[in-house]
Amino acid sequence: MSSKTSAYTSTAKLLHWLMASIWIAVWIVGALAVYFRDTLNPTHGLTYWHKAFASALLILLVLRVAWRVTHTPPAMPAQMTSRMKQAAHLGHLVLYALALAALPISGWIWSSVADKPIMVLGMVQLPPLLAANPDAYDLAKWVHVACAWTSVALVLGHIAMSLKHHLVDKDNVLLSMAPRFKSKY
Ligand code: HEM
Ligand code: HEM
After folding, report:
1. Which of 12, 88, 103, 171 could crosslink 77 through cysteines, CB 3.0-4.6 Å?
2. Where exactly are the transmembrane stretches of this chain (predicted)?
3. How far apart are CA 182 and CA 10, in angstroms?
4. Residue-wise over 9-19: b if at least 16 C-beta within 10 A, else e?
5. Residue 95 and residue 92: Cα distance in Å, rounded?
6. Residues 81-120 pLDDT 10s
């Protein structure tokens, strides 16, 4: 059964896919930087680029939230129960709050207390959020690593749900975020 969802705006799609690509890339680079330090990251080049692109997500997030609150997203498929719709809204809210806000902010705090610079896209240095504090280093690191692993579980769940909508429910949820799809409804 096909549903009557309309599509996200082109700007919402552009921001979603740009941020999703950066997010997935910086997650992989962050993990490679830590777990292949001796072979791939001996001079912390991966760490530098991890921070450079991950910090750009915060700027894109401001634009995305501004766009989101001023533009209505497509209606969810009519066959979804109100409980499922609430769960989907909550999932999106947690993606914004944890994966797109708390995770980069926790990295920013970690680098601040460690007194290490963050060069946004390799060009502009972010000011520290907190003063350098070696005593807070371990806690800040723990929070960033915990946010990173919780978020990746959430993102994998998000991808699985969008595939379920497309392959099992056969509705327009995945297509509503697809680059070329324009709903007639
Ligand atoms: C301003 C933003 C961020 C800063 C400053 C930052 C900083 C860091 C630093 C310094 C490390 C350790 C790298 C090393 O030891 O060589 C790290 C690890 C990591 N970061 Fe970030 N990060 C940021 C955002 C993000 C984002 C947005 C993600 C996910 C998309 C992420 C995922 C990870 C992962 C998966 C690790 C490895 C975790 C582990 O040890 O298991 N970070 N980050
Ligand atoms: C291959 C990867 C991805 C696919 C296939 C995908 C698919 C989708 C689809 C179909 C939607 C439309 C609404 C819905 O889910 O019900 C959506 C929305 C969303 N996605 Fe993704 N996504 C991916 C990656 C990501 C990543 C990595 C993030 C963030 C870390 C993310 C964050 C979001 C958020 C916050 C929304 C809600 C948009 C809104 O209504 O404001 N997505 N995604």
Report:
1. 171
2. 14-36, 48-67, 88-110, 142-161
3. 10
4. eeebbebeeeb
5. 5
6. 999 999 999 999 999 999 999 999 999 999 999 999 999 9
